[in-house]
Structures are given as structure tokens and as C-alpha cells.
Amino acid sequence: MVEQARGAASPARYGFTDDRAGALLRAAGWWDDAGPDESSSGVLVALSRAADPDLALRGLDRIREADEAGWAALSEALCQDKAFRGRLIAVLGTSSALADFLVGSPGEWRRLARDKCTETDCFADELLAAVQANQPDALTGTAAEQALKAAYRGVLLEIAAADLGHVVEPTLDAPSYAEVTGRLTALAEAALVSGLTVAHAELAAKDVDDTRLAIIAMGKCGGRELNYVSDVDVIFVGDGDLQLAIRLASTTMRVVGNACFEVDAALRPEGKAGALVRTLEGHTAYYQKWARTWEFQALLKARAVAGDAELGQRYVEMVDDIVWSAAERENFVEDVQQMRRRVEKHVPSDLVDRELKLGRGGLRDVEFAVQLLQLVHGRADTSLRSASTMDALQALGEGGYVGLADAADLETSYEFLRTVEHRLQLRRLRRTHLFPDASETAELRTLARAVGIKPERGRGEDEVLVADFRRYAQRIRRLHEKLFYRPLLQSVAGVPTEALRLTTKQAAMRLAALGYAAPDGALQHIKALTAGVSRRASIQHALLPVILDLLADTPDPDGGLLAYRKVSEALEETPWYLRVLRDEGAVVERLALLLGTSKLVPDLLVRAPEVLQLLGDPGRLAGREPAEVAKSLRATVRRQPGVKAAVAAARSLRRHEMLRVAAADLLGLLDVRAVCEALSSVWVAVLQSALAAATRKRQAELGRKPANIAVIGMGRLGGAELGYGSDADVLFVCEANEGAEDGEAVRFASSVAETVRQMLGQPSADPPLQVDADLRPEGRGGPLVRTLESYRAYYARWGEVWEAQALLRARYIAGDDDLGERFIEMIDKIRYPEGGLDATRVREVRRMKARVQTERIPRGTDPNLNTKLGRGGLADVEWTVQLLQLRHAHELPALRTTATPSALSASVDAGLMDPQDAASLTEAWLLATRVRNATMLVRGKASDQVPSSGRDLAAVARVLGYSDEDDPGEFLDYYRRTTRRAHAIVERVFFQD
Predict the structure, then answer these.
(1) Which one is the CATH code of 332-483: 1.10.8.80, 3.90.660.10, 1.10.3300.10, 1.20.120.330?
(2) What's the pTM?
(3) What are the boundaries of each domain within the chain?
(4) How do 211-217 and 811-815 pair as beta strands?
């Protein structure tokens, strides 16, 4: 039976895919014609567990060929010693570079077969012994470098074997992240000590008493968190003969660089352009006068590791005094955040999702956040003053500055990314931070096995690894911002532990550092929200760190916090309000963006709080069809008992829809045309409902209905292009029913129309519902309502060209369908005149446009920044389109549209306009519409003027898609450039014959 099982086996059973696997196993003596040898079954099982079984087997075969004399001993050790077997095969299956080392250094595998000193202090002894330090014949030059390289690689092999062994042999202990990085750091320190010793030997300067040199570790070495392959950042401090100290430093860099790793001294004062070695006094003077914010951030990790211990300690003490006051510098937090953004920008866009170190949700996100919190809060809490990211994060959690769960999540995510980084670097001992592409299945599988990931049901190791990587990266990015404000909240709201309390002055300083322009006012809002011991205060206590953090990334953090307080106080009796904020993180994030950007949204929200619940579901927030909304609104209003109740319901539903659309707009879920369509649709539904209610009321009073009424939408309402602050331009038309005179019909219809205008136009905190009928015949001096025949007679006898132009945007929107359709049919002959316009009427249109734009732009404003009447603005584009319609729509039915973008598109199809010209005009029109809407959202009141400075400008730019790191002036430049180009086209097209 055993023979049958052996005969049925094949190398593929053990995970080998290389066709040469069988031959290599035979050469090693672990396989024969019948299959695997029984004594070597443990080796085969171990090979099957390796990250890359083929790589491990090839590595063993190369060692066999390089050291045939020692192969028997190696093979026996593999078969008999599980610990050795696990370490060696794990290394060979993960790192081709360490396999090269073992092949080139026969016998070095024995390092993994015996108990070694696990104390990191032994590393320096081994490396110093390799260069024969403290001996008369101490090595120098190339000989020292080669000896140091071999010893360094040998110790690195041991560290890697201890790190990886448990993957192949589960009985081996898995060292912690801190143990691995601590050993790597200790090895780097030993290399620096040995390199400096060689430098002394080369320069015969070891015993010179008046020259001292201290090596200060920075970065990950300073934090005892080194990778397998990393530059080691250092700063050199000298005393005595500085020229000799510089020679010692440069020689150390050469020796260690050639033997172990690159030594980078670019973090020194003035960077690479500065002196390699400075005195302690020189460093002190530089940091006190010239240092930039990022240098203080880097100095967090400064630690003396080699050379003169007393000088190094004095340097660290000097740095401590300077670093822990750095947060008081002006714009400190902004500088740190800007630096983080610059780091992110350096990552190519096609690699940003795979960059472990610098990408979004990468290692730098954790490190920057932790360091910023340390620098801000470490001034008062010395427990935060750690060079280690993980130790500092733990201290932040234990001190209450970060939630314990958040700290644990960040710690787990950070360790995962660092472990992945280590495994990637071990492969070829090259510095890399790039996660494999999704198409590199074999590479991903090997990496996953090296990390220790097992396949799950329905998913291979590679799929599990990719999912874990994305999950941890997303978690890091999500938690990154939350770290900023939690200690501030605890200080203001009152933490039970006295040691964690902060004075009001300290809290105000922190708020100022975090971007609040009026920190004292912000403190009052925080105190008001968290006062007392009620459940509401407790929930606010938990929510405010996130709110403060998110508001700090909006254009107006102070205004946003005030708005949050007003909304919270207005809705404090709403049972679900705080629960939604507490339980749905997306709602909090989106609410903070809305409150910190818009003055319109908070005012609407206190009267339409139900929209808050939609913020967690973008589909519900932005996915409603305008027709569905209008139908629902009409049905709701129709059920109301009287006209007042009906109009109140219509106003309430309009408020709800306006807030929903505004929120979706600010969150980038709706484009400008969808916004205008939605706002126009709800306005139409409100008019339809109000008209129906007023008609029913008047009919009930009279006992009959003398007339049918139709409402004709004009202007932006007719074009379905309304903005947040737009009035509803309309015409009222009536027709007498059988048995009624025209006069009675007009009186009935006028009463109904006036009721609609008055009820909708009543003063309100909402944006006004102004029904404007000034475009009717004879304007304000004419009757509010006319019969269809009266309109026909007026336009035939008295109609002017501007009235025909206004009718281009007329469409039936409410009332009697048949009457409305017949009105539209009647005006078609007026607005689409047969034969177009003669030269006289064309000149009249042109003169009228010039007069309107000259007379109506407010004095003292920049005419080029007026969205309606300015150069290249709405009027420029609309007058151009309308002139084309007046001249050609009779012959070209496609031009008969009330929507400006549609008319532009039809003009291109008809050959009346160049496609590029039409595209430029469409872009300008859409931009002006967006800016007009954004200005209303930001200011809370309608304005045609583009903000030209301050927070309003920044907020409008953010609404239009510019990030907080962009200069708002870029938006203004884009607006000017776009409208200037459009105006040039208007001048050419509008005045061409």
C-alpha cells in the first residue's frame, strides 16, 4: 500500500509547478522512481508550505551544487530538525537575494541550525568582530567593507529566518512586528558603529581626544522601526576638529553604504547643500532661526545611536526643547497637512492605489497623523514623546487622545502594511513599496503565502490578500482624520481623569492651530453642545471630535460649527437625530461638508430634518426622478382640506426637495442640468398644486366655474433652467366656460391667480416663492390675466420684438391642458415668425441687448464677474441663441426648444453654428449657471456676482470641484477664461449677418 501511494504521488501534489521539480528532488535524494522518500516527507511538506515552493527548491539545489561536500549534513539537518527546516525553507521560498547569499557563502546555512544569541546587543559584537575591531590588524578599505557585508547579511539572514519560519513550521513562534523592526534597527545601529570604527582605523584617528562625532538616527531607524531594505537617515554632530569629523562621517557613510545600506544625511540643516557635520551650537542656532515645519516633524525621531554618547545625548536634549514647542508656530498644522498633500501628489496616478508607503491609506497617512497629534499634544503630555509610531499610537489611545478601538484598528492596519512591505523587500532585497498589480496572480499568491494568509472558501490566497489590502488601506484613510480632534473634545467636555484635562487656553490654542479663525467662539459652541449629563450631551461628546475634524476641512469651519450647534439645538427633541449621526459615519461626513460650505442648507435643514436621513444613501438622495417627485407632491397637496393647508404642504414639500437637491449638488451627486431640471420640476408641481387648490376654493365660493385657467412658464421656468433663488416667470391665460362672459371669466381667473401669488409669496425663512407675471402684455400695468383671444389680438397688433423673444421660452406648465396647448400653438406664429426677422428687427434686438447689459449691471461691481449680464455670461449666450431662433426656427423645427443647451445643439445640427463655438458657449452657460447656484448655496441668498475673494470665493470654488489645496484664484482664472472665450464667439455670431 505504501508503495502504491508513493507511486501515485507527483511533485505537483506538493505545490511545485516547475517541470524540473522532479529532477531537482531526485538530485537532492528526496525522490526516486517510486515517488518521495519516506525519510524526506517532512522536507516535502515544508516545501509545500513555502511562499514559493519552486523558488525554495531551486535555492536548495543551488546550495547543493555550490557546496557538495556539505550537502549531506544540510540534507540530514533538513530531515531531522523541524526548526531549522522551517527557517531555511521559509527564507529560500521568500527571498531569492538571501538564497544568493547562502549559495555564495557555503556553510552560512549553519547559522539557522544552532541556537544564536537573540539579544540585539550581540549584533554589534558580531559585526565588530568581522572587521577585527580593537585588534592591531583591524580591517580597512575594501577588506573591511567585504567582511562587514558578509557579517551584515548573515545576521539579516537570521532575522529573516526568525521572522518567516512560522509560515513553514507552525510550531515556531511568530515574532511581533516590534521585535522584527527592533532587530533590524539594532542591526543597522551595529553597522553604523562598525562603520565608524573602520573610519577611525582608516584615518588613524580613533584616539584623538579633541575630535568627537555623534551619529543621530532619524526616520524609521530613530523610531526603531526599520524595514529590511531602507536608507538609514542620520545627522552628524561634531566637536573639535570639524574637518576631521567630516572625514570620519563621510568615510562611515562610504563603508556602511558599500557594505550594508545607504546612509542618507539629507535631513541635516540646509539638506544636501549644508555642511555634513555641524557643532551642537550650529544645529541649535539653525533650528531656532531657520528650520521649517517638516524639520521639526522629522526631529521627533532623533536618537543618538553611535559615536560620542555624551555629545549625542546633548543633541537629543536640545532637540526635545525645540520640537515640543514647534506646534505653536504660525500655520503649523496647515504646513504639515500641505506637506502630506505634496507627498501624495508625487505618486503617479496609475500607482496611487498600489503605493504602500505614500498612497492614500498608506503608511504615511498613519505616520503623519500620529506625528501631528504628538506635536500638538505632546507639549503637555510627555507620555506621547516617543520616536516609535506604534508606541506613540498606543500612548495616544491610552491617554484618551484617540479612541481605543480606533487606535487598535490603526495599529492592526499599519502592521499589516508594514508586513506586506517587508515581504516585498525580502524578495530581492530591494527597496520597494509597490503592491503587485491585480493581474500578477502568481506574485500575489507568493506574497500572500509569505504574509501567512490562507485561502478562504471560494477565494484563493491572492484574492484574500487583495481584499485585506484594500480594507486596511480604506480603514487607515477613514480613521486618519479622526485622530486630530479627540483630545480637544475631551478637554472641553470634561474628562473624568484629571491628568487628561486641558485648560481653556490650551484648548483655544489647539483650535487655532487646527484652522478655526475664532477659537474662543468655537469653544463656546462646544461647551454648549456638551453641557450637562443628559444622553444628548453624552452623544454629542462622542460625535464632536469627528464633527470638528471634518469641519476643519471645509471652507468655513467656524460657520459650520455654529450651524451645527443651531441645527442640533433646533432638533434636540427629534428622537432619531443624534442616533443617525452616531450610527452612520457617512451622514456625519456629508453633514459636516454641507454645514461648512453652505449657509442655505442649515436654514432649510432645521425645517426639513427628514432629509438628514437621506445623506447616508446617495441613491435615495440623488436618484429620485423629477416626474416622480412632482407626482408625489401633487398627490399630497390634493389631500389637504383647504387652500391654506394645501399651500403650506406645497411649500413644505418644496423645501424638502430644495434641500435634497442642494445636498446632492454640494456632494457632487447631481450635475448642473439635473439640478435645474429638479428645481424647475418641483416649482411646476407647486404651481400646479396651488392653482388647483385656489381654483377649487373659488369655485366652491361661487358654486360654479366660469373659466378654465392655464399657466404658461416663461424665462428659466419655461426652459426648465431654474436655480435655487430663481423667481417663477409666468403668464396666466383663461377662457370662459359655456354660459359665462369673458369679463366674468377674467375676474374669476384673476382672483385665482392673485390667490396663488399671495399664498406662495408670503414671507418665509425659505428661499422666496415669487410668482412673477411681469412678462405679460403691457407689463405690470396690464391685466394679470387675459383670455386667449385677448392675447392673440394684443400680439397681432401691439406685440414687440422683445415679447416675441420672451415667448421663445414659453411652455405650458399648469391648469387646463387643452387651453395651454392652444396658447402654445397660437404663439408659435409669433415667436417663430415666417421668413424670420427683417434687418430692422434684428438691429432692434442687438440694440436692446447692449442697452440691457449696460444699464442693469450694478455699479461698483466687476462686470466681467456677473454671471447673468457679464461678458460671456448667461445673457450673452441666451440672446445669441434666441436671435438664431427668431431668425431660423420657422424653417428649422429642431430649433423650437425652450432649453438653451438644446437650442445650441440644434444650431450645430442645422449648420448655423460651428461645433466648437457651440461647445464653448455651452460650457460658459453651464459654468455661469453652476456658479450662480453655488453662490446661492454658499451665501444663502441669491446673487449674480461671482465672489472675488475670501471664504465665499473659496467655498464656491470647492462647490465647483476645486480641492482645498487649490488656489481659489485658479477657479476665477478659469471662469474669466471660459467667459472671455464665449464672449468673443457671441460678438462674432450675434452680430453676423
Answers:
(1) 1.20.120.330
(2) 0.57
(3) 332-483, 646-830, 832-990
(4) unpaired
